[in-house]
Structures are given as structure tokens and as C-alpha cells.
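Re: export button greyed out
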Amino acid sequence: MSTIKVNGQNAMLDGVSVHTTVLDWLRDRGLTGAKEGCAEGECGACSVLVARPGLESATEWTAINACLLSVASLEGQEIVTSEGLGTSNDLHPVQREIAVRGGSQCGFCTPGFVCSMAAEYYRPGRTARAADRHDPEHGPNGFDLNALSGNLCRCTGYRPIRDAAYALGGPEAGDVLAARLSSPPPAPAVTRLAVAGAEFLRPESLDEVLEVLAEQPRARIVAGSTDVGVEVNLRGARDSLVVAVDRLAELREFEIGRNEIKLGAALTLTEIERRLTGRVPLLEQLFPQFASRLIRNGATIGGNLGTGSPIGDTQLALLALDASIVLVSRRGERAVPVADYFTGYRQTLKAPDELIRTVMLPLPLAPFTAFHKIAKRRLNDISSVAVAYALDIEDGLVRRAMIGLGGVAATPLRARATEEALVGRAWTESNVHEAAIVMAAEGTPIDDHRASASYRSAMLGQSLRRFYAEHLAAEGVSV
Amino acid sequence: MFPAEVMFHGHAVCWVLGETLEAARLGAAAVEIDYQELPSLVTIREAIAAGNFLGSDLRLENGNVEVALAAAPQVFQGEFEFAGQEHFYLETNSSLAMIDEGGQVFVQSSTQHPSQTQEIVAKVLGVASHAVTVQCLRMGGAFGGKEMQSHGFAAIAALGTRMTGRPVRVRLNRTQDLTMTGKRHGFHSQWRAGFDDEGRLVALDATLTADGGWSLDMSEPVLARAICHVDNGYWIPNVRVDGRIAKTNKTSQTAFRGFGGPQGMLVVEDLLGRCAPLLGLDAMELRRRNLYKPNQTTPYGQPVRHAERLESCWSGVLDSGEVERRKAEIEGFNATHPLTKRALAMTPVKFGIAFNLAALNQAGALVHVYRDGSVLINHGGTEMGQGLHTKMLQVAATALGVPPARVRLAPTRTDKVPNTSATAASAGADLNGAAIKNACEQIRERLVYVAGGKLGISPQDVRFADGWVRGLTFGGETLTWEEVVSAAYFQRVQLWAAGFHRTEGLHWDAVAMRGEPFKYFAYGVAASEVEVDGFTGAYTLRRVDIVHDVGDSLSPLIDIGQIEGGFVQGAGWLTLEDLRWDESDGPDRGRLATQAASTYKLPSFSEMPEAFNVQLLEKAHEDGSVYGSKAVGEPPLMLAFSVREALRQAAAAFGPPGTSVDLGCPATPEVVYWALEKARAANHLSIDLSRVELSGM
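Workaround output, generated via the alternate export path:
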């Protein structure tokens, strides 16, 4: 019998369709705290907590967008909603702090903020910091404000919400949700839901998934559903076969070897960020700029490659890092360089029966890297253009240059002409200036609501100039 | 509701009822429509060129502009077009309608204006108003977007319930809401401004054109308020402002926090920011010199009472914001940072409170005291997050002398308080608070006789406080509130009352545009400091200091929340929120290009000022309003002009001294980048005085 544990109670998962979202299911059950504000993972009003494998504890309460995920994908799992955190007579510390500081006006966004904030409240790695540290994105209690980057409020102006976050203490003894962290989260349930001609499958093994794909290549593969969920909600996508792969052990490898780093395709961006602990500075710089924490908690690196969007930020970084992708099917495995992977607008080399299994980053890494994202809004926005750099500069000479561009063509792009203009030449202002002119002519940017083509082009050149300004120290320095 | 001609991209042509949302969605997707394509006007410039206007033109005139401009030592002229704004209340438009066996229609609606929702539903159903009850429990944000726009969706739900006899809910998803509902009006302006040798404005001649969208909606009063606020906090002795409403094939633009006021004020703030370098004056100094002083009068003839508060707020911000010290710091920073520039700008707000149309300045309330001493209040105002209900509880508790916990507030309903005005114009607490106070005072007037009798003292000496009833002097007997209420019941004294309030002293000639339309003015001043990145035009808001006049605050927590929230929403309009329509000749002409949260960006945590200091102006009692308080909903939005002006100054700092910067609006990173690139380019040009002319004319 399929159930989901909601706020400590088992709830039957019957009467749902393949495409019923967690949000709609919760609201149908009378749990109306979580709200639909945008239905595309932008506003966070639907945020809820899910028990997920943790790094510093067996389980972590992980905040996700309930509007994007199908409820079928959470069979056997545990959810906590704002109602499960506290009630108006018995407020959770997070709810109390928000209330007394005026952090809730119309209240529509508040349950979502409460859940996002509670996830950070319970994060085991959150520790108090020195009071004198100037860091506007962390509170004295170690609260990482990026935890709220996926939540929008139209009323307050955020100051009282930040004050509430920074005023939080730690969970008290006897806090049931804190106690829950020490035991593992529920194992993934093998799920098969067939309703009204549509089917949702969560197979047990990679082999089973590959078999399904071999027989039904039009199956929709989902992991965090952060992209597919938008299609379902706003564009009426109703795939007849949905296959969930996000919990497959075979897709969740993580290994830092001598010659390469292996990242399982189903690792979420949050997991990769936290497991790498700064080992890949380019990715370290990228992650906080990638969508929001809520999205990163669901979105996987494989999914970002799978959608093949020209503005998926990780793809440029992988281009610059000279990564390759391991594709797997019943026919076997093959490794494809990311540079060859994208073939057209949302088109890739991946055959319909193939699945992205692993992303491989070759070592050693180039010593000079940066990720520049140009967007209207600093947090949680889609890039107008983005640039990833990985350069090797030795004795003042550029030995190797790998530059990935996003937002300037139908696919992510290597800046080949710019790379050529740099490699073998001295790392000097005049040479960089010349290369920046070449860079501004890379790609074929368009005018749209995010930016004009001329701004996009200008930003490419400006980006290289900035990269130079940031790495002046490299000039003449042996590395 | 069922148009013969589709007037804009997103205009609903039919509605599909379904057992489930999914069924209704599929039903709507199956509808096929044959359109016959007609010519369209999408931009305000296209409408102006075609002479396509809505409603009446307006003119405000005071003094003699032509004579003053001819005599002015310095005259500048310019043009400025700026975009509107999407409300993006987190809760989209939503209504649930049902009908009982007696034919009574009950509609729950997310609306700022239940009485008008009721009227429209009644009209659509062809029944009298008494057959329709509209209730609004609360809204998940509104900001003016549910003052008028909500009615049609309620009517659709009501029509559905009448046709089927079953409850019908209409709820828009975000993209539908963005596509179908009206927004803040974008404006186009053309102006000439004359200054004397000290930089004082002597004349302003302006033409404002509001982009009204396809139907009139509230465009006329919005335009009137824009014209009445073109002076903002500045005394301009000679003024002529012409206003008109362009008709375009877009959503029907509507009320949005400030209701035209921000648009009018933006024109003068923009021109001062552009002219200051041309006058050789620091923009801060130019603004301060022009502030209203006591005994001066607005162009429409209303004395600017308490004008000295502008100066108090200004000097308050100078002090609390350590403005002089920071300006020196910024100068030092800019001298040593060629790739990054900072700037600090200060702007004032003077905003008129009351509906321009005098009749709307009335409110009702219904206060019940039950036999157990508990109190239930109803009033005509709606709660949209602005804290109105909390303030109304406080007013009732204070007026009756009972603890707030004894008072409960019932949902706003048209069968409890009829003929209400929209909760709008920032006047919700002023109007409804006065009506509640009036009802409570009626009850108290009756209870003093009951209590006086029991205490053996004169009724005039009875005092109510914190749930106790006692005499004026110390030491006498004390009764509980509940004892007095119970005694009153047994004496057959009426324990409930209907309260009413009308704002006195307002008059307005809408054709001549003269009179005293406002009860008072709300004042405030903000100082904003920004840092602009010379590579990209991206910026951060480093610090904001505000002193704002809310009278004697009914609730400082709520009022500061309104000030901060209004400010950030204003900053969103002016710097980030980028409404884009497809202006091409392609098949999607007229379509809103930013029709989702992923493409229309609201301020998020990254736009919050790093330091945000808000103070309420002290000693600011307002005579004749509820407990000396002032309205707070709209005015703080316009404090955000300081952010845009700081961005202008930071962009100018990339160029030679005295650079005048034209800044598009919203000032997104791209817009700021082009502005600073232009300023930077001026470093390489010799100063040619013939170029010192504002563009566009």
C-alpha cells in the first residue's frame, strides 16, 4: 500500500494522477499552508521539507519546491509542512521569530519562508560565527541567507525576515525533527503508478531503467523535476511515461581520484557543492549563482545536461573544465566530451535510449578560473550571458585557455576564437584587450526580454577584461 | 466578459467550467478560435502618433508658465518615458461563488473593494445588490491590483454558479494573472523647466501621457493624481501640466500603490537629477533648495500644511544617515576606484492623503458587544497584508478600554457594512478606524450611564481602561468590563452600534483641477547609497536611511513594515522589474514577453539594502485623524526615487565632473551600463557646450 509520511502521520497515496504535484496533493488534504505563487519554482511559497540523505547527519531536512515534484515521486518518503512545524497556539521557533519581528504581512509567502528557514535551522553544519566577521550573507548564528534565495516576498522588503533568520538559536532538547536527523531517511520505494493511461515508474536498478528506455525511448526521465515540473504546470506537458532516476545508487557516485573527479548524474547541485568542499573553485563560484537553494536541492547535474538548455549555467563550467559525460544504455557505455555533446537548440548527442550516468572532470584543474554571470537580479535569475574560465598561465604566458559561454547561441559554446587569441601570448593588458574584442564577437546573441544583443556582446568583452583585472597577479608569476 | 473584439493579447473570449481544474484546462485547450487580424497599437508612442486616446484630457495651470519661462535665466527641456509595473501580489486573483436555495449569491473574493464586486456581480446576474453578498477574508497581497481587476473574475464565478447551481471557483495561475490583469501605468512625459540663478524652479511646463491600455478602468483618477503630484515636495510657482491617456492594445492599466502619484513625482525627480549638473549644483543641494516651506501652496491651490516636516525629515536623514561624512568617504572611494563608483542621493516625498473624489472619503463599521463582554468588529476595509485589521483591533480595544484579546475581527462582508469604498488611497486605517471609533464611542456613551449608576458617580466621570471600569478619581469602586456589559444587557441597553465617518473639509473641482482634495500630506525623506560595477552596470544598494512621517503611529511595527516594503517595491519598479511587451510585427505582437516569475523579476534578498535604517518622524501628531496617526500604505514607495537618483550619480561619476546622465527606467544593470558607458566616453571628448542639451527633443 503506497503511503507518504506527512507531519509524522502516514497518508495514503491514492486517487492521485501521475502528474499530481506534491503541492496540489497536500492542499487537497487540507494542508493549505504551502501555496502556489508561480508554479515554476521561482517564488518558494510552496516550500516543504523532505527527509533526504545528509552529509553531516544521516538525514537532513531538505527544503524543496512542492509545486515542481510529482507526489508519486515521494512514495514512501517523509514530508514536513509548515503545519507540521508548529500551530498558532504552539509556534515553531522559526514561526515565532518571523511573527514577532513583523516578517509576515499578507502571509501568503510565509509558510514557504518558514520551511526554507527551518531547513537551515536544522542544518547540522550551521554554527555560530565570530561577531565581527563582515559577511552580509551569514548571520552571527551561522544562518546562510542563501537558504532563502528561492523565496519571494512582495510585502516586507525582507529586512524583518533576515532579522528573524539571524536571531534563531539552535533546536532544543526534545525537538522531534532534530532527533530525526540521526537516523537514515526512508529508502527509495520502488514505485509503479498507472492512472488514466499514464504511468510513473521508479525502478529499483539502473538495468531496469535502461530496459525501459530501450523499449520506450520516449519515456520522460525525471530527477528533481525542476525543469519538467514547469512544463507540467505552465505548458500542460502530460507525458505518458515518467521514469524517476534520482535515487539510483548507480547514478549517485562521488569520487575524487588522482586523474579525475566523478560526479554521479543524480547528485543534486547542493550535494555536489557540499561534497566538493571547494575542491573545484570554478564550481564553488558558480553554485551560489545557480537558481536558488530550493532548486539546487532538487536539480541534478545530469538533469542540467539532459535539458540541453543554452543557458544552463553548469554546462559552461563543464565546458571550461573540459569535462566529459558518460552515457549509458543497454548497448553499453560511452564517454562524450561536453564540448561535443550539444548539437543544437535543446539537442544533444544523447540517444533516446541513453541515460547520463556520470560527469567526469579531468585533473589537475587549471589554476585560474572564474564564473561570471550577468543577470538582472543577483540571486535566482537566469543568465543574460554567462562565462566560465579555466586558464593556465605560466611565466606570464597563457599556456592553455578553456572558456565556456552561455546565452550567446542556441547551445552552450566554447569561445574558440578567444582561446586562440590568448594561447601562446603574454598575459598583458593589451593582449587581453585584443582578445576581449574577439570575445565580444563570439556567438550570435539575440535581443530578448532579458537583455539586448549588444549588451550581451559587450558583456563578453567586459567579462574578459574583468577576469584580467581579477588575475593581474598572474602576470609574470610562475604557477 | 465575452468580447466581440479581442482588445489585447490575453483577452479572455470564453470561460470553461469543469469538474476539476484539469478538466477545465483541457476544455479550454480544445477551444478553437478564428481571429480576423486587425491593426494594433502596442506602444505609447504608437498611440500618441495615431492620436488614439481614452477618456478626457486634463489640465492643471497655475501662474503664467510662458512668462516665467521667458524670464528664467536657465531653461531646460527633455523627454522621458518610463515603464509600468506588475503588482505580483503573491496570491493571484481568485473567487469562489455559491448560490443558496433562496437565490442569494455568496461570493468569496480576493478583492480590495467588496462593495464594487457586489455591484458588478449584481449587474452581471441582473439582480439587485441585496441579492449578492461579497466577503473578503483577507488577500495575499493586492497593492491596488485588486481594487478593480478582481470584479470580473468574481462575476465569472457568480455566473457559473447561477448557471450550474453549484459552487464555482475561478483562480488564475500566475501566467494568466500576468497576461490578463492591468498593471501600473507606464508614462511618457515632455517637459520644459525654468530655474532662477539660485537653482530654484520657477516654472514647469509638462505633458504627461499615461499608457491606459485598452479600457478606461481607473486611468482618469490615476492621471489626476499624477498631475497633482508632479510637484512632489517642491514649490514651483508657475505650472502647467497637460495630461492624457493613450489607448493601446494592452491590459487595462489600473491602480497600483501610489495611484499615479509615483509617475507624476518621477517626472520632476528625473528632471532635477538631469538638470543639477547642468546648473552646476549638487543634486542634493538642488533638491533641498526647492523644498516647500510653510505657507506655500500647491499648484492646485491647497496650502501645504506642515511643510516644515519636509525640512525636519531632511535634516533627520542628514543626521541619522551621517550623510556629510559618507559623501566625503564616497568621494575618496571614487577617486581611487576607476572601475567601481559609489553615490548617495536624497529625495523627498510629499503625498496627498484622501481619495481625490470627495464622495469616496466615507466609511462604516459595525461593532457588537456580546453579553460575555467579548467584542466583534466589522468594518468596510479589507486586509491585504498592510496590517489594517490589527490596527482596527487596536482602535476598538483602545476606544472601549478593553484588552485587545477581548476583540475579534470578522471578515469584511457587504451584508455587514454596505456601500464601502475600496481599501485604497492609503486611507484604510484613517477612514475605517474613525468609523470603528465612532461606533465604539456610541456604545461607551451608553455604558457610562450603566457604570455611573452602579458606581454611584456621574456618567462623565466614568473611565474605561484595560478591561476595568472606574471613576475618574483614585480609590473608588472598580467594576470589570464584563460586569458593566452584563448590567447593561439587563437594563435593555443596546450593546452594538453602527459607526460612520466622513472626512470633513475636502473639496475638488475635477475639471478646473483646483481645490483641497487632500486631508493632509504624508512626508518622508530617504538617502540611498549604491555601488555600481563599471564592467557590467550591476549594482548593490549599500545603505538606506529613511525618516518618514506617519503621525503618531498606531503600530510602529506595522508602519515600519509598510515603509520598508513600500521602499523595496518602489526600488523594484525603478530598477529591476522590467515589463516587456512584444512590440515587433511578428505573430506574437502585443504579447506580454515577461509573463512568468522566471522572466518578470521581483526584488529578492539580493536587492535588500545591506543596511536599512527607518525612523518615524517624532512629534508628528496629526490633528483630526485617528489617535493622531497618518496613512502609510503608499507614500514610502516613492522614497525609492533616491535609489534611481543614486544610480544616475554613480553612472555620472564614471565621466568628467558635471556629467548629466539620462537614465532609462527601470534602471536595470544593462540600462545603467549604457549610461555609464556614455559618461565614460565623455572623458575622451572635449567639452562642447552645444552638446549640453538634453536628448530627445
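The longest helix of chain A spans residues 453-470. The button fix ships in the next patch.
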